[in-house]
Amino acid sequence: MKCVDDFRLRFGQREYVPIMVGGMGVDISTAELALEAARLGGVGHISDAMVPTVSDRRFNTRFVKDKLQLYKYNVANTDKSAIKFDLDQLAEATRMHVGRTMEAKRGEGMVFINCMEKLTMNGPKDTLRVRLGAALDAGIDGITLSAGLHLGSFALIDNHPRFRDAKLGIIVSSLRALQLFLRKNAKLNRLPDYVIVEGPLAGGHLGFGFNDWMEYDLQTIVSEIHAWIKAEKLDIPLIAAGGIFTGSDAVSFLENGSAAVQVATRFTVADECGLPDKVKQEYFRAHEEDVEVNGISPTGYPMRMLKSSPAIGEGIRPNCEAYGYLLDGNGNCAYIDAYNREVLAHPGAKKVSVMDKTCLCTHMRNFDCWTCGHYVYRLKDTTRRLSDGSYQVLSAEHIFRDYQFSKEHQIALPAA
What we know:
Number of strands: 15
Order of helices and strands: EEEHEHHHEHEHEHEEHEHEHEEEHEHH
Number of helices: 13
Mean pLDDT: 97
Radius of gyration: 21 Å
Low-confidence stretches: none
Strand content: 5-15%
CATH superfamily of the domain at 4-276 and 388-405: Aldolase class I
């Protein structure tokens, strides 16, 4: 029986361990986690979700405070259209986060950044161009385009000197989405260097309908895309993602068309992961019935998370003056609409509950939106329970090596 280490992910003449750690925001996939994956010969991701917030935490900048101070006059206003991001500061925050990470990189692997199209930031095209360009400026090995079709994203950076040098890839959940992307970008004569095929068991936002996600199967989607790519004589590595919990799960994809796998849920309980320790214990304690796919994200995508997430039902005032990462080009957000509706329905109430949407910016910033993959309830089987009832946190190296070398669906427990 084979293990993951019997395979290699190839980019040109270079070979890598075919394990990619997904880019979980906000700073859940930390630089430290991505750097461990790279040191071990695989691919790690950082995320550019709310990167000014991440910069403030990591490098003691004042981007969020300065933005709040600038727009403090608007806090009580329901119209958020005036709130804009300073593009120079956005570029500086991105370059700082990426640059410091790349300076610390060791080993033969790579570090990519996950870039969400749905972070529209009241300036969808301009803010996306700045984030992509600044990441390339700072030396990132590759960019993964996520949370959207990204039909125009390549065109935003086609004049950048690293446009054909850096690895550029996209996350899709269907053959149709990939075909749309390739058709839109055909005139640029620049294929993606890789395609991550994300199935319905993934964590966070899902690229499926709210009522039909359970009708899809990752291997079926991968096989369909692989067959089409082969028929079109395209050389694009496919990377399977979503619900790959053991090394043997990974091997089944590597033997059937995938060049690598992307994994994330098991790394949420790594010591290097950015989640607070108390939240990691919530993930360990979770049971299958504690997981749900809901529609509370203002992005419009369904999202998988723990039912006990404090973000669910929490009707806090929108914090767009400080954050505002999900404001569309007109300054609108589905949470603002839901919040204002509840305030009008409950005049005089000191606090309202908003069940259908959540202030994703604030709750992701506070680690109160506990997104997870379907198999989060199996995390307790990957470690040891301690005498106080808590679970032993794992090292990223231990998890990575277990994926790399395990066989027969075995999971190696950490040393006591």
